[in-house]
Backbone:
């Protein structure tokens, strides 16, 4: 994979978004999606109170008072709205977010995710993770498939604390795009030059294509 794997993931997720959608971008890789929307008219929401977020600012555009939920500088587009956290979470909990793009620590084979607490490590709290998993109409996970220790984030069963029992729709990783029908995880598309058998060996359990006629492709 020639490009930075984070950007490959973000660019692939941008392909899933449609004109007119309200989309919440989580911290980390999800924030990069804003730079790959091209001409799509998507309304990006950040839970600290902005609807109509634009891409990362240039040095000339930088405004230290304009940040997203991850405290990263952002821009805003014409027609953007600013509001308080109570209204922001009312937007999420009221089912008005079409797509949430979230990072994750683990995803199990049925699409349940854990993305807010690591065992035996201090945390600040769950933040908006549980609200977004429960409230968004579609949930897309953006993460590398393996940790720095080469442990798979796609697992048979969660060992970290769950973010909610609602299933995610897609897990876009640097190796492949996964979906989660009732009978368990399926590969939608390969994003790395490996076979599905090789990827199965790396994650530690058998994988299969959603469409059995698909062939492995390199990017």
Residues:
């Amino acid at each position: 994979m020639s490009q930075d794997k984070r950007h490959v993931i973000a660019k692939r997720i941008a392909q899933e978004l449609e004109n007119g959608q309200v989309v919440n971008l989580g911290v980390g890789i999800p924030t990069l999606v804003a730079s790959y929307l091209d001409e799509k008219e998507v309304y990006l929401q950040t839970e600290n109170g902005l609807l109509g977020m634009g891409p990362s600012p240039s040095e000339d555009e930088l405004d230290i008072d304009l940040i997203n939920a991850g405290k990263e500088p952002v821009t805003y587009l014409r027609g953007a709205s600013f509001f308080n956290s109570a209204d922001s979470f009312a937007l999420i909990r009221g089912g008005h977010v079409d797509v949430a793009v979230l990072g994750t620590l683990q995803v199990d084979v049925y699409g349940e995710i854990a993305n807010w607490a690591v065992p035996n490590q201090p945390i600040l709290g769950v933040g908006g993770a549980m609200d977004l998993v429960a409230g968004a109409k579609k949930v897309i996970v953006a993460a590398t498939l393996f940790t720095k220790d080469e442990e798979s984030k796609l697992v048979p069963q969660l060992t970290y604390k769950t973010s909610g029992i609602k299933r995610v729709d897609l897990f876009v990783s640097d190796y492949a795009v996964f979906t989660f029908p009732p009978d368990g995880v399926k590969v939608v598309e390969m994003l790395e030059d490996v076979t599905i058998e090789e990827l199965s060996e790396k994650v530690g359990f058998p994988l299969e294509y959603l469409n059995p006629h698909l062939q492995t492709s390199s990017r």
Observations:
- The helical segments are 5-14, 85-93, 129-135, 196-203.
- The mean pLDDT is 91.
- The CA atoms of residues 48 and 85 lie 5 Å apart.
- The chain has four helices and twelve strands.
